[in-house]
Amino acid sequence: MADRPRLTTSAGAPLASNQNSKTVGANGPVLLEDYQLIEKLAHQNRERIPERVVHAKGWGAYGTLTVTEDVSKYTRAKALQPGTKTEMLARFSTVAGEQGAADAERDVRGFSLKFYTEEGNWDLVGNNTPVFFVADPYKFPDFIHTQKRHPRTNMRSATAMWDFWSLCPESLHQVTILMSDRGLPVSPMHMNGYGSHTFSLWNDAGERYWVKFHFKTRQGHKHLTNEEAVEVVGNSRETYQEQLFGSIEDGQFPKWDMYIQVMPEMEAEEFEKKTGWSAFDLTKVWPHGDYPLIKVGELELNRNPDNYFAEIEQSAFNPSNVVPGIGFSPDKMLQGRLFSYPDAHRYRIGTHYESLEVNKPRCPVAHYHRDGTMPFGLKTNPDAYYEPNSFGGPVEDPSVEEPPHRYAGQVGRHEYRANADHYSQPRALFTMFDAGQRDRLFRNIAGAMAGVPSEIVERQLGHFEKIDPAYAEGVRTAIAAHAEDNPSASTSHAAE
Ligand code: HEM
């Protein structure tokens, strides 16, 4: 006992026993005055908070962003100036599975980064793919419903997924990536990260550049096949946690090279005229030939959290967290996300989620949001509790005003999908695949389509046909082979 801290109640009073309930006689009933027993049971009942509505299963660690190059002509952000080192937190995740899901499942991976910069937190909440399934936030909740459990069967539904995808051909690019060799990373350390959206950078002269962020893994871009994943999950459901946590504990710190693609503000219009794609369409990449990768620096993860719940489960990433020199873009999806994340955190964690240690900026914070649950750590001047005031409260700083967007259009619900090109970028990707990669793509899709009604399968094959007839033909052949090998699993066609 001498060298160990004394056990106390949560109010700090020393505790005489943590072994036996207080009862009337050895076998008697428990007393209401055994308040610490009641406390203990009541605390247990409150140990869980809602899991994230998407990206519930995650793995995370702290690290450092080091800027090794000079990109100061694009941005005034202090964290992106040459030589700057910034403490950061990363959280990786799968999208569809619940908190207890296995790690090695075919799914898109989240790639969330929180940079604790001297000008406030900058969060880049991206994925391991440069594009996404849908281009409009209107579609996001519906899309996610197709990835989650069917209301009646409480199982995931291949029919719902392919029904939605085949009715939303803007998903083709992301579906092709997901079903390809790149759809199931070996570990978080073996995947690239992308900001995915178009963001902007702006410099001291008020010039804006559209930008895409890329993080290229130095551990090798490595993926599992479906067959390998079955074996991996059979042995352990927690392989990502084991690998990421274990590697950092062993001093093997994973690293990524950070790059940007840059487009001058007014070039977006020209880009659209030239390619037929909007520079703000999240289902499209910018060709690297026209917009080469520009190196910024390197990211290293080098410290495991001590408390997974407090530091990873309660971490709260907001695409709306930007700092002077970094801005948004007209990307509809990004705009939708600017509302969605802080709203999710207020519900999931609480009003003052940003005063939790993991989310807290490492620079001074001064605002006029008041009261609510647990506003801890906010030291305010008691007389300056409104603004404007004459009592020395914090005031705005016009020098950090972002330049206005010059690239804009008319307000309205524009039919931007009419004549949209959903096919040429997945075609470019498919063309790059060799015979083995194509074969695995076909088989992954055929497996994922097991049980899907033939009308939906045919609709989807129609889209593959428009990408490349060989794509449709390959999937059709793989579906027939899958049905033959798995008569009981009944593919769509076998089910007829
Ligand atoms: C309009 C579209 C979208 C909406 C409404 C949306 C909404 C959400 C919500 C509500 C969460 C849970 C947040 C929490 O409880 O902590 C979440 C998590 C996440 N989303 Fe999205 N999302 C959208 C699109 C995207 C896109 C396009 C990406 C990537 C490019 C993305 C990446 C992520 C990641 C990485 C997380 C997990 C964050 C973490 O690690 O805590 N989401 N999303």
UniProtKB/TrEMBL annotation:
It catalyses: 2 H2O2 = O2 + 2 H2O. Its EC number is 1.11.1.6. Residues 1-25 are annotated as: Disordered. The active site is at H55, N127. Its cofactor is heme. PROSITE patterns: CATALASE_1 (PS00437), CATALASE_3 (PS51402). GO terms for biological process: hydrogen peroxide catabolic process; response to hydrogen peroxide. Keywords: Heme, Hydrogen peroxide, Iron, Metal-binding, Oxidoreductase, Peroxidase. Signal peptide: none annotated. It holds the Pfam family Catalase. SUPFAM superfamilies: Heme-dependent catalase-like. Residues 7-24 have a biased composition (Polar residues). InterPro entries: Catalase (IPR018028), Catalase_3 (IPR040333), Catalase_clade1/3 (IPR024711), Catalase_core (IPR011614), Catalase_haem_BS (IPR002226), Catalase_immune_responsive (IPR010582), Catalase_sf (IPR020835). It comes from the Bacteria. GO terms for molecular function: catalase activity; heme binding; metal ion binding. GO terms for cellular component: cytoplasm. Heme binds at Y341. Residues 8-395 form the Catalase core domain. Belongs to the catalase family. Decomposes hydrogen peroxide into water and oxygen; serves to protect cells from the toxic effects of hydrogen peroxide. This is catalase. It comes from Mesobaculum littorinae.
